[in-house]
Amino acid sequence: MKKTKPELPNPRPCLECHETRPIAARGLCERCRSRARRENLKPFTPASAVSQGKAARNFAQLISILEDCKVSSKSVTVILREFLPYSGQPQVVIEAYTRAIREREEANKLEEQ
Length: 113
Ligand SMILES: [Zn+2]
Hints:
The longest helix has 22 residues, at about 90-110. The protein has helices at about 30-40, 50-70, 75-85, 90-110; strands at about 10-15, 20, 25, 30. The protein has 2 domains: about 10-40, no CATH class; about 50-110, no CATH class. The chain is mainly alpha-helical. The structure holds zinc ion. Zinc ion binds near residues 16, 21 and 32.
């Protein structure tokens, strides 16, 4: 005879939002599970974030605007550092830019000494 797990009632309270809803997986309703999945892809981005393609275009436009307006390198660093977490780009891209910004700052500091 086949053993089966005791069936949990479905819908039941979601572990995240505590609303009684149909449970999709791991105790989470579909809405909370989707949100968790999106947050894993883009940890700092609001759930309604832009697509990766749009994020890359936005970022390129921002760089272009900063260049057109001759924003100082110091200010560009500040603006990019603040903007990157909201950019909707993949975490690896954000980390690469953040590292590049830090390296450039350190190089500038050495030049000033
Ligand atoms: Zn939920």
